[in-house]
Amino acid sequence: MSDTGNWCLIESDPGVFTGLIKGIGVQGVQVEEIYSIDKETLEDLKPVHGLIFLFKWQGRDPASATNQAPIEYENPDVFFAQQVITNACATQAILSILLNSRTIELGEELSNFKAFVSDFPAEIKGHAISNSDVIRAVHNSFSRSDPFINEMNDPSSKEKEDLFHFIAYTPINGCLYELDGLQEGPRNHGPAPGDSWLEKVGPIIQERMARYEGGEIRFNLMAVVDDRIKVYQEKVAAYEEQLKALQEKEGPEAGAWLKGEIENLRGDIVKEEGKREKQARENKLRRHNFIPLIYEILKGLAQEDGRLEGLVEEGRTRAKAEAESAKQRKAAAAAAGGASEDVDMYE
């Protein structure tokens, strides 16, 4: 795998993924984080175009029920690109859902890209993604500004860093497909007509999670769904039509249930608008470099008579006091027959 184009790591965050989708010109869909794959949760999000699953990479899949699904090496109806770029798995998982959808409006940029690469083999599709200036630029626009070396990513560190990977699950031509750019091809998990794929994918994801030791909880699941504001607005319009017809027939006092539903949906629209404003603000903060601001603050404090030195000394004193307090709590726990390790977890 190459580092073509220097692709950055991006966060597993629905606001980031939604911003990335809009950045490449796709409208009408968004990404929602989901905490359960039960029927009720997924029913509320329909239509669901695909799921993006994040997990800790352990190398090639061991023998399991999941990877018994056959790999389809050549299927012209499935858009599959091998991942040839380091750090690009998030964007490739998103593209796997967008480019295999029959209902999402891709926009001019992505439509042209799909038409250009559709006949390429999987590896060449991966290289085409790596060489797309638009896709790479949008992906990298969500990198964090970090001028300091993070010891977790320090190549000289002897500690082995955990690697995480994104894959996609999506329905294609009545079958459930698993699209993982590190595999040789898409896995076909069998027939799943209509929305039945949402019921089929749950046990598959649970089986993947069950392979890990009990303490592993670092998983993330997100769904690519229709624009929620548009969904709510269409429901409001439909209910208002029903309410109008009912009141014309039975009088202005009729339709209390419909009035309540309309009010709830309008509340949902307000909440969604607030969530989007928050996500937009967070995405701006992700791109902003605060180091010059911090430098100027420290410089200003240093220029004031001994103020910075006093703050440093205050911090040292506080750290010593907290360390001494921790020792005392450990000693008290040991004297009482408790486990000092429990205290260490919170220090």
From TrEMBL:
Keywords: Coiled coil, Hydrolase, Protease, Thiol protease, Ubl conjugation pathway. Belongs to the peptidase C12 family. The active site is at C89 (nucleophile), H165 (proton donor). Its EC number is 3.4.19.12. It comes from Linnemannia elongata AG-77. Residues 6-226 form the UCH catalytic domain. GO terms for cellular component: cytoplasm. Residues 322-347 are annotated as: Disordered. This is Ubiquitin carboxyl-terminal hydrolase. GO terms for biological process: cytoplasm protein quality control by the ubiquitin-proteasome system; protein deneddylation; protein deubiquitination.
